[in-house]
């Protein structure tokens, strides 16, 4: 278990679409998470059907006084507080999933959501955090603690400074679900026509980004959407049967891109779960057998010396990566 | 405490994390940061409350372990004292009415944090730093805040043995297992590559191959793992783990011992297989 006071056994995970999508699969949910590089209508349209947006950003020390939108203590949907820092990504995912109507879910998730119906956000947060199966699903995408790095007082990676906020439509209004705020935040109604809720969500998010000085905010956007693969494949079959070759060719390319993205995610996830000590050790042995370890050591010493000199003159800290 | 020497001092207040959030709130209490060399020969970073003259924080710092860094996302004069050996964070805000000397104080502070023998650079137009009152006057508790690793190091120093080094490290595994260092192996010693396949992730979507291995070594996940192992080795506490790799316990006491043991292992294996070939 982790040596952290407040981690309660929840490990830090990367906030990567591949990690989120793997979690959704474990939860039995037929959605995927993709990076969103732009909020313009074309980019959003390409990702439809789109169910929720997740806004993630690095921590900001200056307090943000104005809460845009209004707190809704009577929010009828699913909202849970973040009670364990390391669980923040999974908590954001659940706050999104809990408000997507008619969503297919695996039995454990279904049971968890039913069980927490009617609970206040704090209690819900506590119940979620104590669900062992969920914690294990969450932890399955970080390195196994076989090396027992916990309790050695090592610096945490900078990933832990991310905060996640979900934006999605519930009963005709745009809601912001932030596990660190006391209530769900209502941002007004939206018009069903045209882009629907996305248009209003875009406004809200852009306004938020504008409250920070330019360049001061490091953030990303993620989209929670239907898995497009099966739809694309049936469309492809239809086009091919109808003899529409050039359109079919376009789809072939899109499907290929989608598959290579999945392969990259699967590759990276297998690396995330893996204990690399054996590989590191054997690589070093291989270098040693090839007579390359000694020269590599010498170069590494020089590199470190230069780095320390530079850091001293700039008075910066020494953390790598 | 006549032997304590104040190296520098400047007005600063503390700032605290708001619960478990990532917001930091400045606390209005007037205070000062004092850096002193204690009679224990160790560097003390203290925060004194200027309204009651109590030293309310007293941190012992090891050379090059800590840095005082400006929090760039903030428009105020907010700084954080951070450590390479732990994830402790102490936030402060500069309280002098003028920010003209901020850089001067901070640069000198960091100079001392890297090396207690540092010679401070004071602008000729300014005077010596304010050492408000005698620093030894701590009637209040000075809490020593040491994480487990620092405690172990302190114990080792006191017992006269050399524990894990808290000095700036001599080298890092991350600079040895670079793509540039590993790539030549594929052409110069291709027979060594398959020895690595059993150590690749069992659920890798592509079968083990030299290409997969290259891809892995270039990946951020692998680099993060190397960095973790590097840091773990620096604590000197991995004796138990390395024995499971077939190495002597001494190999877990640091990066140099680890690499030496590996070289010895490799030489031994080469000699053994060399013997087999000679009998032909």
Compose a concise summary of this entry.
Chain A: It comes from Tetrapyrgos nigripes. The complex is a heterodimer of chains A (321) and B (280). Chain A is of the alpha+beta class and 321 residues long.
Rg of chain A, rounded, reads: 23 Å
List the helices and strands of chain B in order: EEEEEEEEHHHHHHH
SS elements, strand count of chain B? 8
Largest sheet of chain B: 8 strands, antiparallel
Kindly provide the radius of gyration of chain B, computed on alpha-carbon positions and rounded to a whole number of angstroms.
Answer: 25 Å
Structural class call of chain A reads: alpha+beta
* Oligomeric state, counting identical vs distinct chains: heterodimer
Spans where pLDDT lies below 50 across 5 or more residues of chain B: 125-146, 157-166, 275-280
Order of strands, main sheet of chain A, comes to 1-7-2-4-5-6-3
Q: Calculate the terminal CA-CA distance of chain A, rounded to whole Å.
A: 25 Å
Quote the CATH topology of the largest domain in chain A. Answer: Ubiquitin C-terminal Hydrolase UCH-l3
Number of structural units classed as domains of chain A: 3
The most extensive contact between chains is: A-B, 71 and 92 residues
**Structural class determined from secondary elements of chain B:** alpha+beta
CATH homologous superfamily assignment of the largest domain in chain A: Peptidase C12, ubiquitin carboxyl-terminal hydrolase
* The first-level CATH class name of the largest domain in chain A: Alpha Beta
| Helix content percent band of chain A | 40-55%
**Domain tally of chain B:** 2
Strand fraction of chain A: 5-15%
In the CATH hierarchy, what is the architecture of the largest domain in chain A at level 2? 3-Layer(aba) Sandwich
């Amino acid at each position: 278990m982790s040596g952290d006071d407040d981690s309660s056994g929840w490990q830090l995970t990367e906030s990567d679409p591949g990690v989120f999508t793997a979690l959704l699969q474990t939860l039995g949910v037929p959605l995927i998470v993709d990076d969103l590089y732009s909020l313009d209508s074309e980019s959003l349209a390409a990702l439809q059907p789109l169910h929720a947006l997740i806004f993630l950003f690095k921590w900001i020390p200056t307090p943000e006084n104005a809460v845009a939108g209004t707190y809704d203590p009577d929010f009828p949907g699913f909202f849970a507080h973040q009670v364990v820092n390391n669980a923040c990504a999974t908590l954001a995912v659940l706050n999104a999933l809990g408000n997507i109507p008619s969503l297919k879910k695996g039995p454990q998730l279904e049971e968890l959501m039913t069980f927490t119906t009617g609970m206040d956000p704090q209690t819900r947060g506590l119940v979620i955090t104590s669900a062992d199966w969920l914690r294990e699903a969450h932890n399955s995408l970080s390195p196994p603690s076989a090396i027992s790095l916990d309790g050695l007082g090592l610096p945490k990676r900078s990933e832990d400074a991310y905060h996640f906020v979900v934006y999605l439509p519930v009963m005709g209004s745009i809601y912001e679900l932030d596990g660190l705020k006391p209530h769900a935040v209502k941002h007004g109604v939206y018009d069903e026509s045209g882009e629907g809720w996305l248009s209003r969500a875009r406004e809200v998010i852009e306004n938020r980004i504008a409250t920070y000085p330019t360049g001061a905010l490091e953030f990303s956007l993620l989209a929670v959407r239907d898995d497009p693969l099966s739809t694309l494949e049936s469309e492809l079959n239809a086009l091919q049967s109808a003899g529409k070759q050039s359109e079919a060719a376009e789809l072939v390319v899109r499907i290929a891109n989608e598959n290579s993205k999945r392969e990259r995610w699967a590759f990276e996830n297998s690396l995330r779960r893996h204990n690399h000590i054996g590989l590191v050790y054997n690589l070093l042995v291989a270098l040693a057998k090839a007579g390359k370890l000694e020269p590599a050591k010498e170069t590494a010493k020089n590199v470190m010396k230069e780095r320390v000199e530079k850091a001293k003159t700039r008075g910066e800290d020494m953390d790598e990566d | 405490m006549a032997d304590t020497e104040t190296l520098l001092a400047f007005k600063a207040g503390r700032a605290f994390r708001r619960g478990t959030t990532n917001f930091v709130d400045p606390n209005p209490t007037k205070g000062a940061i004092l850096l002193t060399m204690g009679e224990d020969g160790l560097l003390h970073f203290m925060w004194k409350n200027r309204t009651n003259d109590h030293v309310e924080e007293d941190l012992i710092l090891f050379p090059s372990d800590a840095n005082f860094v400006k929090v760039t996302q903030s428009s105020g004069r907010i700084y954080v004292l951070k450590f390479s050996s732990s994830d402790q964070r102490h936030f402060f805000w500069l309280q002098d009415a003028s920010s003209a000397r901020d850089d001067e104080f901070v640069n000198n502070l960091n100079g001392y944090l890297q090396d207690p023998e540092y010679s401070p650079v004071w602008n000729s137009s300014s005077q010596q730093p304010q050492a408000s009152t005698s620093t030894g006057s701590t009637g209040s508790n000075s809490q020593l805040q040491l994480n487990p690793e620092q405690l172990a190091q302190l114990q080792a120093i006191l017992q006269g043995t050399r524990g894990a080094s808290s000095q700036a490290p001599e080298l890092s595994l991350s600079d040895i297992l670079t793509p540039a260092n590993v790539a030549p192996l594929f052409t110069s010693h291709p027979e060594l590559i398959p020895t690595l396949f059993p150590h690749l992730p069992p659920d890798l979507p592509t079968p083990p191959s030299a290409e997969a291995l290259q891809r892995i070594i270039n990946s951020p996940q692998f680099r993060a793992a190397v960095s973790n192992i590097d840091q773990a080795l620096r604590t000197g506490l991995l004796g138990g783990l390395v024995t499971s790799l077939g190495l002597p316990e001494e190999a877990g006491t640091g990066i140099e011992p680890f690499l030496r043991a590996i070289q010895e292992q490799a030489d031994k294996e080469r000699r053994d297989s060399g013997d087999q070939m000679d009998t032909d």
